[in-house]
Design goal:
alpha+beta; Jelly Rolls; 6-stranded antiparallel β-sheet; 3-stranded antiparallel β-sheet; 11 strands
Amino acid sequence: MLILNAPEAEFKADDHAEGYEFNPNSDVVESIFKAGYHFRDLGTAQVRAISRAVREMAPDITAHLGSSWRVINVKSWSVRSDTVQQGPNAWHLDGFPVGTFKVMVYLTPIGKATGTTEIRLADDSTTILEGGSGTYLLFDPSVIWHRGVAPTEAATERTHIEITLMRSAATDLRYAHGGLNSAYPRLPWARRPIYPAD
């Protein structure tokens, strides 16, 4: 509920940390993200809640990746029934460096009516994710074609947290936020904008 009740944050194309890759097409990016995408302004309480969730998921993430990793960016936003099928809601690959993964944590139930994520499998078939609040997906967004799916039910909102991870020499669970228009650090050893969670 802390994230769901967080105030909205205005998406600005220049909201990216130094040393991070970002989308330079400012006019296009802003027009897409202002068409039904609603970002969250995550304060101290939300950062603490997300950090607790990361600690809880950490053993499973490590087991699936088979390596140590670190958090490199965290964002949260909502998708409503009026959201355009562009940007994250169009089929895409993220184009991240090898060893970069995403964890999508869904704070609301996901499915056709409530909004979800659709992925394309190796045989070119597609499947949508379905589940209750707290369902999460760990995947390589630069290998698996995917897209967000807006809710079909009016006045319904799908809210999630997007946690971007990168393989590293040692696991580092500290919360990092590179900005709403940031993707990943250009250099794997670059300093991250770390925020204390305690």
